[in-house]
Amino acid sequence: MSSSTTESGTGDPQGLEGIGPSLTPYFLILFGASAGLASIITLLAEIRRALHFSEIGIGLAIASGFGAAFLASLVMAPHADRGRAPTMLRGGLALGVAGMVLLAVGQDLWHYILGRAVFGFALGTAGPAARRTVIVADPDNLGRNMGRLGAWDIGGFVAGPMIAAGLNAIGGFRFTFWTLAVAMGLLLPLAFRAQPDTAARDDAGLGLRGLLRIRRLVGAFFVVAAYFVFIGAFEAVWVLEMDDRGASQTILAVGITLCALPIALFSPIGGFLAQRYGARRWAIGGLTTITLVVTFYGIVPGVMWLVALTMVTSVLEGFTFPSAPMLVAAAVTQDRQASAQGLMSAVEVATAAVAAVVLAAVYDAHGDLMAWAVTAGTMAILLLIGAILTRPDDLQPVKPGVPDDPIRRPFQ
After folding, report:
1. How far is CA 228 from each of CA 23, 221, 225, rounded to the nearest angstrom?
2. Do residues 232 and 382 make contact, with C-beta atoms less than 8 angstroms apart?
3. Lesser CB count within 10 Å: N end or C end of the chain?
4. What is the set of domains in the chain, with CATH numbers?
5. What is the DSSP string of 238-294?
6. CA distances from residue 200 to 164, 210, 215, 244, 333 in whole angstroms, order as listed
7. What pTM value is reported for the model?
């Protein structure tokens, strides 16, 4: 390929697949898994009421899902670098079906803890496999494809609550989980169409070893952590703040959908632009802008102003969302891509979990203004560290000799 094509990030702007294996199975299965996760979250309150679980019990079920996803991201991701991405996609989907069945038939709390853990492990298994294949399958269109993967992922999360609400109204939460289990099962034939990529593999079995000694990769993780501090704050503080401001459940549900939809819509464009202008510049610039907007969350009055400001943030997120995993991809060679992406997923989960706990406590003790100020300040510090660690040694936007081949050059 010519360097001009690589650096401009143009390639084929219209084709869905590009070169290499078909990406459609990875897009659709990630959509289904995300829709399933969103449905579980949506129905937690219904499950608590129907089965008389305590808030601590529901919290344990949620924590089991996060913990299993964290573990799978670390343990399973390296296998995708050894040519097993299609097997991981099928296994992740099968585990997702099993998790849904457990939730559908469960009577006791441990059933739901186990079911949520199985589903979390499924997500942690399929996610890095999908990212690995999308990254190495069509490098000329990496940004566009990462954006599309993000769009399908977020799109599932947007559609999930509406699907769950409709099915729950028809037949209750058990009917909802059975229906989703069947729907995910229908995707299994599609999973068997997934083909392995032909890029370099981790034949030495290095896995995660040595990754945290790569300065640029560690810097990319700081950038990712900055974004997921905001995600943790959104989950822990935003919903509580909307409730305290008098938002009804309907307004809250519509607000969440409206605030997530721009991410799905603008991610493909954001990925294309990140590849064209540089993922480092795009990620740090976009997240810096988001950080500035977040400082106003505790200042604007009323419900509608907060929703409007959050929608502005979501548009910025859509344009920025694909650039962080691209920055991670730029820091390692092709044979370590899934391992690096799995480690990134672990950073995401851990950061969001810690941020949610800490910022919820800050909100409870000091109110929304302080909570959002702490959020923005933490994001700014993490971004600064990430910007320093990912900076090329020669301070040039295009650095020769970065790992593996010139495809990585525009992302520095």
Report:
1. 26, 10, 5
2. no
3. N
4. 1-196 (1.20.1250.20), 214-412 (1.20.1250.20)
5. IHHHHHHTT--HHHHHHHHHHHHHHHHHHHHHHHHHHHHH-HHHHHHHHHHHHHHHH
6. 41, 18, 22, 53, 8
7. 0.79
